[in-house]
Amino acid sequence: MLNKGLILGFVLLVSQLSVKAQQHSAVEVAKDSLIALLQTFRAENEINPTSARNTISLGTKPVNKTRTTRTRKKGFRVQIYLGSNRNDAYATQSRFRGQHADMDSYINYDEPNYRVKVGDFTSRTEANNFMRTLRNQYSNVFVVQEDIWVWE
Hints:
Blueprint: H1 2-23, H2 33-44, E1 70-83, H3 86-99, E2 105-110, E3 113-121, H4 124-134, E4 142-151
Antiparallel strand pairs: 1-3, 1-4, 2-3
């Protein structure tokens, strides 16, 4: 019994000393220089840019669809619906088409959920701007990165 008391006392003493040691220790942060290079590269290639770019929009150029072809490219879309109800997904898509007839919308089924995604944006900034306009009309709206269709 005396041994158990001594062991318990020793454990309590050591735990008190370790708590005091943790309270007075300083944290040292080592920053890798390659991280800054990677962040710069990603910002230049518009892969999760670290800051918004100041660009002047000249508007969209009308596309002559008879002389161009549709190709797949990495880009962004805005997801406006995620749920397991098929009827709700199609209702959300038709409601969006009624409001934005000039923009494409897509329904994907990844078991067990339906996803309604809209737009074909080549930059995240364009997709974020459009997402802000949709926030008050749809719940749980966000930007996703995937293959998009562009006219070239």
